[in-house]
Specification:
About 10% of the residues lie in helices and about 40% in strands. The chain is mainly beta. Among the domains are: about 1-55, no CATH class; about 70-275, outer membrane lipoprotein receptor (LolB), chain A, CATH 2.50.20.10. The strands form 8 sheets. It has an 11-stranded antiparallel sheet with strand order 6-5-4-3-2-1-11-10-9-8-7. Strands 19, 20, 21, 22 and 23 form a 5-stranded antiparallel sheet that branches. The protein is elongated. It starts with a helix and ends with a strand.
């Protein structure tokens, strides 16, 4: 009976694959030599393998009588039976029974189009919102951390950009040639979707049953290898050859090690061009599938309120369509920006003047009761106006106007605004004005500020005095008291290489940068220059910007190489130079703005990422980072010019 087994296998093969004309080995006579019998059997097996290899994959069909080689070929060519696919599934890794840790399960959804080729992947821990997302348009890959919105992009490897030439060898060897997208996608589920990798390993496939998985009829197949004491069980889609369920067992004892399972599958559905568009309109979420509930989401927070303990954040959003840009002024409550509550749908604020700039940046008074900004005085106006905003009715009044006005600086008591004006022909002056529009003063016209030391820049305020930095001949620092009109030079002992000064909110210390060759050092000094301290030093670096915390106890600063080739870092340290921490790294090195939250526990940063310009929030207690997002705010729009109203 054993000598007739090859004939039975061949017959099963013919039934499974259509009628083929092949020669059938005749049973040797009893007096034939055993060696001749073995040689004949080996020859018949070679013929069988050659016959299967010559089959058209499209004609392969599976059933309970399918030989191992037919099953292997169905897996090997499974990628030829579909163009695009969408699956929802899970992967569970089981710790051995002697272990103390529980099993781990992830939930993933994959959408793959071999014709582009492109893919989407979204997933995270089971029974929880998605935590990661990746997307490819066939040329590039975008990866996003959904817990914080941080993104990273890179080119799709060249070998994965053309899947049409993928042709795995039907001959078993020591080299496995997986589908180009399988490893590129990086999902455990892609390993069973592209099942050709399992078909290139020596072993035996044995049909053991038929079962429906994800609504598809599957052949249950046990796979064993001669070199491993393990059993793998596959549920193979009878029509496509894709593995819809996969289990690994450890012998002896049949201990289940892990399980891959597809709960929903959809082949060759209609697709649209925007499915694989790298311009993400919003934070991705799991696709809702009939019979499968999406992961739970947090309830939205109430709308912004004047009672929010962390105030509100204002910023400009734009679709950045070159030549046809749309600009809007948006607002979110401070507590949602900090991540303490879920963000509501953002508010679009009415522009407070009839001719707003494209990007409206607000500069809030120390008490948060009003804001200053600069904007054109009319649709075709040649001048720029300085305006004061009342956030209640959200209306503004013009204080003064000049050809060009730089952003203003508030006095600590909120009664004055200092600003630089330019005439467009190289001339510039420093002016100050009361917030009621009175007492407009040209500081640089005062004889106490040497004309030869022009130009001057505003370095902030110390009490009721404007702090000015002379940039011309005889550089130095001056205080201009707007109440008395007195002018005096300070910090004469600072070197000429000292940068602008950055006063702490309480006025006790001033930070500055001292450059010596290729070395940049962050230092502080008291206003009288009696106590100077070195806080941090970097070689071949620029240090900018510098921001004090609201309580004047900590400093945040940006640091990068001179050419920003290595990106840009943000550091936090105490005013005494202790506890230096890197709190963020900017790959693109385009940090425009850094602001503290009113309580000093968070940083709001405008920076670039792989899909545009956005706002990022850093929790200074945990160093957790996330991209700011809110319902209705497209992620492919740019978010610019933030201001945190206290």
């Amino acid at each position: 009976m054993l000598k007739r087994l090859p004939i039975l296998i061949t017959c099963l093969l013919l039934a499974a694959c259509g009628t083929l004309e092949i020669s059938i080995y005749q049973t040797p006579t009893p007096d034939a030599a055993p060696q001749a019998t073995l040689a004949a059997l080996e020859q018949q097996n070679i013929q069988l393998a050659a016959t299967v290899a010559a089959l058209d994959p499209a004609n392969l069909s599976l059933n309970l009588d399918s030989p191992s080689e037919v099953i292997r070929m169905k897996l090997l060519y499974s990628h030829t039976f579909w163009r695009n696919i969408f699956v929802d599934g899970s992967v569970t890794w089981n710790i051995p029974q002697t272990g103390s840790q529980p099993s781990q399960t992830i939930h993933e959804q994959l959408r793959i189009d071999q014709t582009i080729p492109a893919f989407q992947r979204i997933g995270g821990p089971a029974d929880a919102p998605a935590q990661y997302f990746s997307l490819s348009d066939g040329k590039n890959i975008l990866q996003m951390d959904l817990t914080n919105g941080l993104t990273e992009s890179r080119p799709l490897p060249e070998f994965a950009q053309n899947t049409s030439t993928y042709a795995p060898s039907a001959t078993i060897s020591d080299t496995i040639n997986p589908h180009p997208l399988s490893g590129t996608i990086g999902s455990p589920l892609s390993e069973i979707i592209f099942s050709s990798g399992f078909a290139q390993t020596e072993g035996t496939f044995k049909p053991v049953g038929i079962e429906y998985i994800a609504g598809r009829e599957c052949l249950i197949t046990d796979f064993t290898r001669p070199d491993l004491p393990r059993l793998s069980r596959f549920w193979v889609d009878l029509h496509t050859g894709i593995i819809l369920k996969y289990q690994n067992f450890e012998n002896p004892g049949e201990i289940l090690q892990n399980e891959y399972k597809i709960s929903y599958v959809e082949y060759d559905s209609a697709t649209t061009d925007d499915i694989f568009n790298l311009n993400i309109p919003a934070l991705p979420q799991y696709t809702v599938i009939t019979g499968i509930s999406p992961a739970p989401t947090a309830s939205p927070a109430p709308p912004p309120s004047a009672d929010d303990p962390l105030g509100a954040v204002y910023f400009t959003i734009t679709d950045h369509k070159y030549g046809q840009e749309t600009y809007k002024l948006a607002r979110l409550p401070g507590s949602c920006v900090a991540g303490l509550v879920s963000c509501p749908t953002f508010e679009i604020m009415p522009y407070p003047i009839t001719s707003p700039p494209e990007v409206l940046e607000l500069f809030w008074a120390p008490d948060g009761k009003s804001a200053a900004f600069v904007a054109p005085t009319g649709p075709e106006a040649a001048n720029i106006g300085l305006y004061l905003l009342d956030p209640g009715p959200f209306l503004a009044k013009k204080l003064t106007e000049y050809t060009i006005i730089d952003p203003p600086s508030w006095s600590p008591d909120g009664k004055w605004l200092a600003f630089r004006v330019q005439d467009g022909n190289g001339g510039e002056e420093i002016h100050a004005i009361r917030t009621d529009g009175s007492s407009l003063t040209n500081l640089t016209a005062d004889s106490g500020l040497p004309a030869t030391s022009r130009p001057y820049t505003i370095n902030g305020w110390l009490g009721g005095s404007v702090l000015l930095h002379a940039r011309g001949v005889g550089t130095g620092f001056y205080l201009y008291n707007l109440t008395t009109g007195d002018v005096r030079q300070i910090l004469k002992n600072l070197p000429a290489e000292a940068s602008d000064l950055y006063p702490a909110p309480n006025g006790a210390l001033l930070a500055y940068i001292e450059t010596n060759g290729k070395k940049s050092t962050l230092k502080t000094t008291t206003p009288d220059g009696s106590a100077q301290r070195e806080l941090a030093s970097f070689s071949n670096s620029n240090i900018y910007p510098i921001i004090w915390s609201p309580d004047s106890l900590r400093i945040v600063f940006g640091q990068g190489n001179s050419d920003l080739s290595g990106g840009q870092a943000i550091y936090l340290l105490s005013r005494t130079g202790e506890d230096l921490q890197k709190v963020r790294h900017s790959v693109y090195g385009n940090i425009i703005s850094i602001q503290f939250s009113p309580d000093g526990n968070y940083l709001l940063v405008q920076d670039d990422d792989s899909i545009g310009r956005h706002l990022f929030v850093v929790n200074l207690s945990t160093l957790e980072q996330r991209k700011l997002s809110a319902p209705g705010l497209p992620l492919d729009w740019w978010w610019l010019a933030p201001s945190w109203k206290y």
